[in-house]
Amino acid sequence: MNSVQHSIETTLSEVFAPEHLAVVNESHMHSVPPNSETHFKVTLVSEALTGKRQVQRHQLVYGALAEQLQGPVHALALHTFSPDEWAREQQVPDSPHCLGGGKH
């Protein structure tokens, strides 16, 4: 499997050694052709995120995924947690439905 989703999962696993990682392709919720891999929701739990503000965490993820963001990935919904935060939360919000393009 050499998909964009797999590439994101592999990269984040190598960079962050996550305790929990979920990468969900949400492209079907947007105005893109069928079977697209352009919109993703990422939940990342890693010790590497402890003590960092959300902005710093997102910058680290964007840096790690620079190659994917230059190409096929159009949007990332990021939910980043330290292990302690995840132990308390263990949930992320549902993504809103797309209101752009031909979806509304």
Walk me through this protein's architecture.
The protein has 104 residues and is of the alpha+beta class. The protein has a domain at 1-17 and 43-74. Helix content is 35%, strand content 19%. A 3-stranded mixed beta sheet has the order 1-2-3. The chain starts with a helix and ends in a 15-residue tail after the last helix.
Helix segment count?
Answer: 4
First-residue to last-residue Cα separation: 33 Å
Cα radius of gyration in angstroms: 14 Å
Mean of pLDDT: 84
Secondary structure: number of strands = 3
Unreliable stretches (pLDDT < 50, length at least 5) are none
Query: In terms of structural class, how would the helical and strand content be classed?
Result: alpha+beta
What spatial form do the alpha-carbon principal axes imply?
Answer: globular
Major sheet strand order: 1-2-3
Features:
single chain, 104 residues, alpha+beta
Condensed summary:
This protein has 104 residues and is an alpha+beta fold.
Topology diagram in text:
Blueprint: H1 4-16, E1 20-25, E2 39-45, H2 54-64, H3 66-70, E3 75-81, H4 83-89
Parallel strand pairs: 2-3
Antiparallel strand pairs: 1-2
